[in-house]
């Protein structure tokens, strides 16, 4: 009997200890029953070909603004070096990003970036520098955000043609031709090639004869723009009648050189046109110095890039809950706008 009571007490003790050590059932998470919830934001890896590029600094700012409270960004300055950018992409993938947003150093490197993204099953949004469509089309999770490059050249040509016709005194030698110099962006860059081609074609289509005095690359840079303009003024002097620049940074460099030679004081004037409508250029237009520019909408390029990257990072269609549309080349095209003093507030609003 004693043995039986001892065994009974032992069993009761074991049962008691087991009951005391049983875990409390976890409370059901909020939201859909049985679903796990997480407060973690998607992580998006971003590379910019050069942080110190005037225009791209505004695109980067737009991406950062949109990302605030919505995603974690890993931002990289590729310092205009494709090998550096490739390494940055590898590192971002190893850190577990959910999507990539790439402003290529070299558009020809798109295939390599796509290969890396595809191997990791990651969506990739290229922006501002357009990859070859064959490369973009090789991967179902690759898209592009940018512009129609030819549009900016056409608009710049229209702006220049209208002003030339309205100011016959600009034809200094009275030969009926525009003697122009042209500051070209990076050779091979789709925007540089298109702007250079279409601005001149548009002038000709408007019935204006042209004569090229100089065409050299200023690599999108204001210092290089100034150096080239210095050299051209020393060589051609007042024979130059018009300055065309593929972007505002180079245009501003040219203006700095022209100022040093006495232009923009009294009756000595030189028409200068650019592209981008960055704030510094808008100030020159308001002062009556720079003739005009073409708005390259940094704010909306950055916004569209982030919107597509965020949706793709979440596994959604990239256009979900946006107003963007894709063309036949898997690209969101942000339109250009010609800017003069008459509509300068359009450009100012785009940079707010």
Q: What is the fold's blueprint, element by element?
A:
Blueprint: H1 2-21, E1 43-48, H2 54-67, E2 72-77, H3 82-94, E3 99-102, H4 110-119, E4 124-127, H5 133-137, E5 142-146, H6 149-166, E6 177-184, H7 190-205, E7 209-217, H8 222-236, E8 242-245, H9 248-260, E9 272-273, H10 279-286, E10 293-295, H11 298-313, E11 331-333, E12 337-339, H12 344-350
Helix pairs in contact: 2-11, 3-4, 6-7, 8-9
Provide a quick synopsis of the model:
Keywords: Calcium, Metal-binding, Periplasm, Signal, Sugar transport, Transport. Residues 1-19 form the signal peptide. The protein is α/β, with parallel strands linked by helices and 352 residues long.
Give an overview in words.
By secondary structure, the protein is α/β, with parallel strands linked by helices. It folds into two domains: 43-147 and 297-335, Rossmann fold (3-Layer(aba) Sandwich); 150-295, Rossmann fold. Helices cover 44% and strands 16% of the residues. It has twelve helices and twelve strands. It has helices at residues 2-21, 54-67, 82-94, 110-119, 133-137, 149-166, 190-205, 222-236, 248-260, 279-286, 298-313, 344-350; strands at 43-48, 72-77, 99-102, 124-127, 142-146, 177-184, 209-217, 242-245, 272-273, 293-295, 331-333, 337-339. Strands 2-1-3-4-5-11 form a six-stranded parallel β-sheet, sandwiched between helices. A four-stranded parallel β-sheet has the order 7-6-8-9, sandwiched between helices. Strand 6 (177-184), helix 7 and strand 7 form a beta-alpha-beta unit. Helix 2 (54-67) packs across helix 11, helix 6 (149-166) packs parallel to helix 7 and helix 8 packs across helix 9. It starts with a helix and ends with a helix. Residues 1-38 have low confidence and may be disordered. The ABC transporter complex is composed of one ATP-binding protein (MglA), two transmembrane proteins (MglC) and a solute-binding protein (MglB). This is D-galactose/methyl-galactoside binding periplasmic protein MglB. Its main location: other. Keywords: Calcium, Metal-binding, Periplasm, Signal, Sugar transport, Transport. It is found in: Cell envelope.
């Amino acid at each position: 009997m004693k043995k039986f009571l001892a065994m009974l007490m032992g069993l009761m003790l074991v049962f008691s200890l087991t009951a005391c050590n049983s875990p409390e059932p976890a409370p059901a998470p909020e939201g859909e029953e049985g679903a796990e919830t997480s407060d973690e934001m998607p992580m998006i890896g971003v590379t910019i070909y050069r942080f110190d590029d005037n225009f791209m600094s505004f695109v980067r700012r737009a991406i950062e603004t949109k990302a605030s409270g919505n995603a974690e960004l890993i931002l990289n300055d590729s310092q205009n070096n494709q090998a550096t950018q490739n390494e940055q992409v590898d590192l971002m993938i190893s850190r577990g990003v959910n999507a990539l947003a790439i402003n290529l150093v070299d558009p020809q490197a798109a295939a390599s970036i796509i290969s890396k993204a595809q191997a990791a099953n990651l969506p990739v949004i290229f922006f501002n520098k357009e990859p070859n469509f064959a490369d973009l089309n090789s991967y179902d999770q690759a898209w592009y955000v940018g512009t129609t490059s030819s549009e900016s050249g056409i608009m710049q040509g229209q702006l220049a043609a209208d002003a030339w016709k309205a100011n016959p005194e600009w034809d200094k030698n009275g030969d009926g031709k525009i003697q122009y110099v042209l500051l070209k962006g990076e050779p091979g860059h789709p925007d540089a090639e298109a702007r250079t081609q279409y601005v001149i074609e548009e002038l000709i289509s408007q019935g204006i004869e042209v004569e090229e005095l100089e065409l050299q690359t200023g690599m999108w840079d204001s210092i290089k723009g100034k150096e080239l303009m210095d050299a051209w003024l020393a060589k051609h002097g007042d024979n130059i009648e018009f300055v065309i620049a593929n972007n505002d940074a180079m245009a501003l460099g040219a203006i700095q050189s022209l100022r040093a030679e006495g232009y923009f004081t009294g009756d000595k004037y030189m028409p200068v046109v650019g592209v981008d409508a960055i704030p510094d250029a808008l100030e020159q237009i308001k002062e009556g110095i720079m003739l005009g520019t073409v708005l390259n909408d940094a704010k909306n390029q950055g916004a569209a890039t982030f919107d597509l990257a965020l949706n793709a990072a979440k596994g959604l269609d990239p256009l979900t809950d946006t107003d963007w549309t894709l063309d036949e080349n898997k690209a969101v095209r942000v339109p250009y706008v010609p800017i003069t003093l008459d509509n300068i507030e359009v450009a100012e609003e785009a940079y707010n």
